Amino acid sequence: MKLQSARVLSHQQLYRDTFLMWLSCPPVARGASPGRFLMIHCAQGYDPLLPRPMSFHRFRETDGQRQFAILYDVRGRGTAWLSERQPGEGLTVFGPLGKGYAVSRDAQNLLLVAGGLGVAAVIALAEEATGRGKAVTLLQGARTASKLYPPKELPKAVEVLSATDDGSAGHQGPVTDLLADHLPWADQVFACGPNAMFRSMSQVLREARTRKPVQALLEERMGCGTGVCYGCAVFARRGVKLVCRDGPRFELRDVYPY
Ligand SMILES: Cc1cc2nc3c(=O)[nH]c(=O)nc-3n(C[C@H](O)[C@H](O)[C@H](O)COP(=O)(O)OP(=O)(O)OC[C@H]3O[C@@H](n4cnc5c(N)ncnc54)[C@H](O)[C@@H]3O)c2cc1C
Ligand code: FES
Question: Is residue 87 one of the residues assigned to a domain?
Fold first, then answer.
C-alpha cells in the first residue's frame, strides 16, 4: 500500500473532546466510502511507530475535488499528536482500506445505530442515503449529553433518537433499549460502536426472534491495517477473520450470533 500525503484543510474541536479534521488527499478519497477507513501516521518521526486507523466521517466536493473528514477523540499518544495539527500541515496516510457498508438498492428505510464515537462512521452513510431519497433513523448513544453528535451537523432529513447513560438527554440507558421498537420499520440496519453494544444488539435481535441482517463495523487494535500482522483477528462463525482485511464490516450474527 502506497503512502500518501494528506493536507489538513481545517481542524476544530466540534464538541467535548471530539475533533473534526477535513483533509485533502485525492488518491485516498477516490475509492473511499462510508464504513471504510484509512491509516494515519500520528508522529513526526517513528514514535509512535504504528499508524492509527480512522473511519471516513464525511465527504464533500470542493472545486471538483473530493475531500474527506475524520472525527476522533483523544485517546492516547497518537490522537494527542493529531489534535495539535494545524491547517496546511501534511499527514502521512494510506488507504482507503477495508469493506464499507453496503446499501441494497431496494432498501428504503435505513436504521443506523451508533454507540459513543461509533457515530463517526455512520454520518457519511446517513448523508449519502438521504441524498438518494432513503429514509434514515439514527439511534445515538453516549455517556452524557455533551458527548452526543450535534444534531445541527446532521442532514435535516435524518430522524435522530438519543440515549444517554446518565439521562441528561433522550432515553436514560443504553442505545440498544431503543432498537426493538424500530426493527420492524427497518429494511436494513447498520451499526458502529463498542463490542458491548454489539453484544447487547444481538440479545435484542434474539429476543425479537428476527434474523434481520445487521451490518456491524468492528473495531480492533490494528498494527498494519493490511492483513499482515494478524493483530486484528476476531473469531467469527466461519473461523478467524481479520478486521482490517475481511471487515471492518461484518454481519453482526457472524460474530455475535442471534
Ligand atoms: C477500523 C477502525 C476505525 C476507527 N475509526 C475511528 C474514528 O473514526 N474515530 C476515532 O476516534 N477512533 C477510531 N478508531 C479507534 C482509533 O484508531 C483509536 O482510538 C486510536 O488508534 C488510538 O490511538 P492513540 O495512539 O491515541 O491511543 P493508544 O495509546 O494506542 O490507545 C489509547 C486507548 O485507546 C484504546 N484503543 C486503541 N485502539 C483502539 C481500537 N481500535 N478500538 C478500541 N480501543 C482502542 C487502547 O486500548 C487504549 O485504552 C478506529 C479503529 C478502527 C479499527
Ligand atoms: S491490522 Fe494487521 S492484520 Fe489487521
Answer: yes
Q: Same domain, yes or no, for 74 and 126?
A: no
Banded model confidence at residue 74, pLDDT cuts 50, 70, 90: very high
Burial class, 215, CB count within 10 angstroms (exposed 0-12 / middle 13-18 / buried 19+): buried
Q: How far is the CA of 177 from the centre of ligand 1 (A)?
A: 26
Q: What is the CATH classification number for the domain harbouring 238? A: 3.40.50.80
Distance 226 CA to ligand 1 centre (A): 16
Residues whose CB falls within 8 Å of the CB of residue 4, separated by 6 or more in sequence, listed in order = 25, 27, 28, 92, 93, 94
pLDDT at site 25: 98
Segment 217-225 mean pLDDT: 95
CA 93 to ligand 1 centroid distance, Å? 16
Structural contact between residues 163 and 171, judged by C-beta atoms closer than 8 angstroms: yes
- Give the domain-ending residue among 97, 132, 159: 97
Q: Which atom of ligand 2 is nearest to the CA of 243?
A: 4
Most distant CA atoms of the chain, gap in Å: 52
Proximal ligand: closest to the CA of 220? 1
In short, whether 1's Cβ falls inside 6 Å of ligand 2 is no
The pLDDT of 198-213, averaged and rounded, is 93
Domain count, the chain: 2
* Closest-CA residue to 133 (of 154, 153, 106): 106
Pick the last residue of a domain from 97, 117, 152: 97
Per-residue pLDDT tens digits for 133-148: 999 999 999 999 999 9
Q: What is the pTM of this model?
A: 0.96
Domain that holds residue 92: 4-97
- Ligand showing the shortest atom-to-Cα distance for residue 97: 1
